[in-house]
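Entry 14. Ran structure prediction on the chain below.
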Amino acid sequence: MYLSRVNVRPQLSASDLSLFRENRDGYGLHQLFWTLFSDGKSESDCQKKREFLFREEVASEQRQTSEGRKLDPVYYLVSKEQPRADSSLFNVQTKVYAPKLSAGDQFAFTLRANPVVTRAGKRHDIVMDAQQKWLKEQLSALNLGLAGSKGELKKRLLDFANDQCLEHWCELIGRGIFPEKLEQKLSRSETLEWAIKTVVDGAVLQWFERQAEQFGFLVVRNSGGKPVLESGAYRRAHLMGKRKKVSFNALDLSGEIEIVAPLNFEKMLFSGIGPAKAFGCGLMLLRRI
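Output, structure tokens:
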């Protein structure tokens, strides 16, 4: 396998610059990277399967080129085939990717993922699913209506929540990863928001631990028994796919893990985690601790 660092060439022809701008979001970016592995052919003209993962990173310095164009983000690719280095669009730096893995090894990691839960054959975004489920549980306990948007559910809950509800929310926060928030004097709405975030982080942790069990690693715990795992940068992307407009939610995860089954873990590094891999999700980047 190969690990490549890819960035857009600082000086592009007008046609290449237009091509990149038109395709830098969604499946178009995947197709641009495809040309690095197919002698310049588009994916529609090639029978190869997708055998690469990619991840976009924001450049640390967004200075401008002489043409007044800001430097573009950096991309990381893991691929079975060595990418071409003669692209007119990209600068490509590649090295062999063959990490030496043993049980007990620990790594810091970053991962952009599309965490979902599947019910009745349909995928549900895990963040929205956890929020909706918990809000409806709270409303049901108060014999209140369950219809409406998330915002409407939250407003209804705040309007009718009693002291017992607030005490329950504080207990929930205290058991989660944000107990320090209780050292502040929180308003009703702030207490609700931190309770919801605690629920969401718990759902994300459960999802990630299911991946860990499947792919041969554990989430490291700190001295207090809390998982070393953070999530953030949650956002929805509306993109053009192969045939139609699609959308998905992405979440950035970081933390520390320990290898349990090296062979399973290695397969995951090369095949990725979760769906939306063609849109830049699923590639785990590692730094040995």
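The chain has a mean pLDDT of 86. Will compare against last week's run tomorrow.
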